[in-house]
Amino acid sequence: MTRPVIGITAYVEPAGWAVWRDVPAVLVPQAYARAVTVAGGRAVVLPPDDRDGDVVGLLDGLLVAGGPDVDPGRYGQPPDPRTESRPDRDAGELTLLTAALAADLPVLGVCRGMQLLAVAAGGALHQHLPDVVGHDRHRPAPGRYGSHRVRFAPGSLAAAVMGDVDRVNSYHHQAVADPGRLAVTGWAEDGVIEAVEDPGRRFVLGVQWHPENEPDPRPVTALVRAARPAGAGPTCPNVLGAAGDADVRHR
């Protein structure tokens, strides 16, 4: 049985290991790779690279990971002093997204990844969410996740994937203000956009929370399921049941 190959976009950050300290390193939290593996996929880490998107031809699905803020220049705004962007990631991931969408490759955007999906679709972001909603419960403290209720549009891909889940984790200070060409299909109880999707494509879903850190990472499982090569058998039946028996590919 062939496992779907899922590309995961990566950070470039100073890191340390063994005797090395503050070395620029390509990295991604292991939780992403673990979630893909448990769902029956093969995780491949993709460093920022905006030369071309040809690697998409080797992938069955793309997971755009969380991380620092998207450069506000990408959606026509000056940067807020609290915005911390990584232009190399923006350039590399937008190159990958353009190629993946052109190939109708299944795509999942997580947190920053969802925000980048919206920007790529012509949308814009709130640069500092507490200024909009009047609280910091979406990122309660450095390195500490919040939790809140969420609801999904009936009949949407997000609703099909999440089933009866009505609470998710939260760690972000920015959010989608304008989804561009995407459909908004999930909301927090304070109105913050929590899910976007493209009904015209096979599987394009963005979620504002971090499913890779949940005990039941349904969006990652759904991505792997949607990315199965044509004619392949089931991936891991024990995890596919988490997203229900319905086909999660959007029609």
TrEMBL record:
Claim: Transferase is one of the keywords in the record: yes
Molecular function, one GO term: gamma-glutamyl-gamma-aminobutyrate hydrolase activity
BP terms from Gene Ontology: polyamine catabolic process
Region (Disordered): 67-89
Protein name per its UniProtKB record: Putative glutamine amidotransferase
GO cellular component terms, A-Z: cytosol
Domain of life of the native organism: Bacteria
The organism's taxonomic lineage, starting at the top: Bacteria, Bacillati, Actinomycetota, Actinomycetes, Micromonosporales
CDD domains: GATase1_2
